[in-house]
Amino acid sequence: MAPNEHLRGDSAARATLFERLTALRATVGLDRAHPDLTFSLLPWLLGSRPYRGKPVDLFFLGATLLAARYEELGLSQRLPFDRVWVGVRSGRPAFGGFHYPDQGYRHLQMGAVITRYGDLADPAGLRPELVALDLLRAYAHDCLHYGTYREYRLWGDEIGRTRYGINSRARDGRTYSSPDPAGSSSTRNLGIVMEGATDREAKAVTRQVAQRAKVSEPSAGPDRYLFRDATGRLEADDLMVLRDPVRRPAAAQSAAADDFLRRMGAYTSDVGARYELFLAEIGRDEAEELHTVILGAMISGSLTRLSDWLDRRHGPKTFATLFKASSAARSGVIRP
What is the pTM of this model? Predict the structure, then answer.
């Protein structure tokens, strides 16, 4: 079991859940979702010739930093390196990295599938230091997903995840909070809040490593945007380019890289920027403290400290006022 995973139901239901999760995780084949990619395990990739020396040192410096930070937040275990599959080569034109489609942590299989940054059909011209930074950002991100509080129940013959961090889901699929309206610049959706908090923390670790190791920012092209994105330094002007169907292809230099940069811009606008504005609106001068409190609640599954923090600053029942959907189920949902 991953840390902070909990099985609910009577003893027979819990035993069945445990058996099914164990079987899923023992026979995991996350690479099957990407038949065009050739995969390596993370330790094998980091041990290969291009990454020996400074690139692998960058990654393990980051792993040390995130271990200390996550311990402070209440997470003492990290995602095992041998549960991370990395796509390293593609049989068709493809551009890998954090924003490659359909990758990330898979909670039922207890493993992550990510891709090596850059042209996956032709590894020539890669900067191994940038690859290492992007791998670190993805690993730090997925470590938090791995360690976030979860509850599972049996719903008939299916495994149902009823709690994830500070959000919950009823059997009919309804979650505690609603999706944000289209075009929102901020968020009141707990899924976006948790994803934004997770990636903000991953980028903070990556930024520290880049600063300590004095990794220089590339001057142009996808590498420049990758460096800024992984270290949390994308600016408004960058986002304008990433969302511009005319200017972005010129910066991308290939169709595959253009799609990667498009996804980068969309993710930053829809998740990162919304979360930052949420912190500014609700946390104000204490935005950093609110971010830390949110992460602690996600890991522990307890809303007490977060609810108290919000109530002291914004009045009683602020958590429900901010996040509870009008259609939230009356039973089986979290209550602060």
Answer: 0.95
Q: Quickly list DSSP for 113-148.
A: EEE-SEESS--TT--HHHHHHHHHHHHHHHHHHHHS
Give the tens place of pLDDT for each residue, 33-69. 899 999 999 999 999 999 999 999 999 999 999 999 9
Determine what percent of the chain falls in helix, strand and coil, rounding each to the nearest 5.
Answer: 55, 15, 35
Tokens linked to 330: 């009356």
What are the distances in angstroms from CA 334 to CA 164, 182, 276, 329?
A: 10, 26, 24, 10
What residues contact residue 18 under an 8 Å CB cut-off, 6+ apart?
1, 7
Distance between CA atoms of residues 143 and 149, nearest Å = 12
SS3 325: coil
CA distance 174 to 176: 7
Q: CA 245, 246, 248, 249: dihedral to nearest 10 degrees?
A: 100
Amino acid in the structure at residue 143:
C
Summarize pLDDT for 222-244 with one digit per residue, the tens: 999 999 999 999 999 999 999 99
Alpha-carbon distance of 317 to 322, in angstroms, equals 9
